[in-house]
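Fold this sequence, please.
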Amino acid sequence: MTAKSATLLGFDYGKRRLGVAVGQTVSGTATPLTVLAAGDQIALWSKIDDLIRQWQPNAMVVGIPYLADDSPGPVAKEAEGFATKLEARYGLAVVRENERLSSWEARQRGAKPHQEDAYAAAVILESYLERSR
């Protein structure tokens, strides 16, 4: 039996920057794509629209920042709001994934400062893919 392949986009939400990665369920891997500036909401959503058209994901994964004690971090509510907007705008399933230590892991993988958010998005997406196998 062959597994059905699905494409997923992963997001590392931040107040200033949004990291984006793409992954596949069959391979269980993710690739960093880009880092988007989050300041101009019109431009941000236009770029996300472009990514949705380009990659045609089956679902999306958004990292929610939790603290070491599993309580929501200071940006968790905003990340949840972003995930809710993705669901409403694109009509796709949006999974919330604990993003604890994703930026640290991105640095361990050799991400440069301007790439870190995209690498963190890949870490978040791979965490979800591994957990869902």
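The first strand starts at residue 7 and ends at 12. Residues 9-131 form a domain with the Nucleotidyltransferase; domain 5 fold (CATH 3.30.420.140).
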